Amino acid sequence: MFYVASSADGTKLAAIGSVLCTSSDSGETWTVQSNAQSAYNWYSIASSADGTKLAASGFNGYTYTSTNSGITWVTNNVPRHNWLSIASSADGCKLVAVNDSGSIYVSTNSGATWLQTQSPSAEWYSVASSADGNRLIAAAYLGNVYSSTNGGISWMSNSLPSAEWYSVASSADGNALLAATDRGMLYASTNSGTVWMSTNSSYPYFGSASSADGKKLITMGAASNTFSARFGARDMKLLMWSRRAVANAPDATNPGAAEPVRRVAACRWAADPAPPTM
């Protein structure tokens, strides 16, 4: 599986790869959604807070939406592209999708219609949204990280170096941001990207997610490991301390087997280990 999306309470999940699977019991059991273009090259998926509205995109294809937790899907009027990332507001009405051909599209009606934004032309790899859909952050591979405060109408570059940016994440209010590269660079901000804190490792990062309050972060590293982080409340340092094995999603092409998840779109937080003494 390439991407996993979750409802706010972690009960409803959706995972995509060569097929699209959903779960209504926090991942205990999974159902392959045969109506979801089973031969499609799925690449990204996003969920509304209640898990009923889903938006998915694919490689060399289009975007699709569902209003019944993934049981049925409809395609949307966007051009064929490599749609590498899609994000949703909490109510599922505002969507944003990026492709590696240089464009970012937004929708304000759950994907019924789409508008190409005036974003810079770049190889866009990842996008994240605040809960209200107004604050957006997008990352370009071999480029820069950009943000928008008006639902994608205008974009501005953040003060980050040009790099192999691969994933971004946002808190519900859009103040806490996380940006990661596949070369081991990890940056976090608590003020909508005005100031960034950095940490480096030898692991490439393939996916990132944030809790609603932005105080807990997670990123997917190489070798199927996840790394969790927390902001220090007093000095605002980024604390990296936990490395865990990633949970597996079902491989529908091989019943009984599991397939490593490479990207994390949302997560339900379990108890964290104690952070290191500073």
Question: Would you summarize the structure shown here?
Answer:
The protein is an all-beta fold and 278 residues long.
What features would you describe in this structure?
The protein has 278 residues and is an all-beta fold. It has strands at 3-6, 13-16, 20-23, 31-32, 42-47, 54-58, 63-66, 74-75, 83-88, 95-99, 104-107, 115-116, 124-129, 136-143, 145-148, 156-157, 163-170, 177-181, 185-189, 197-200, 207-210, 216-220, 225-231, 238-245, 248-250, 258-260. It has no helices and 26 strands. Strands 13, 14, 15, 16, 17, 18, 19 and 20 form an 8-stranded antiparallel β-sheet that branches. Strands 1-2-3-4 form a 4-stranded antiparallel β-sheet, with no helix packed on it. The protein is globular, with a radius of gyration of 17 Å.
Helix/strand class: mainly beta
Strand content: 35-45%
Distance between the termini: 37 Å
Shape call:
globular
Give the C-alpha Rg.
Answer: 17 Å
Low-confidence stretches: 224-278
Distinct helical segment count: 0
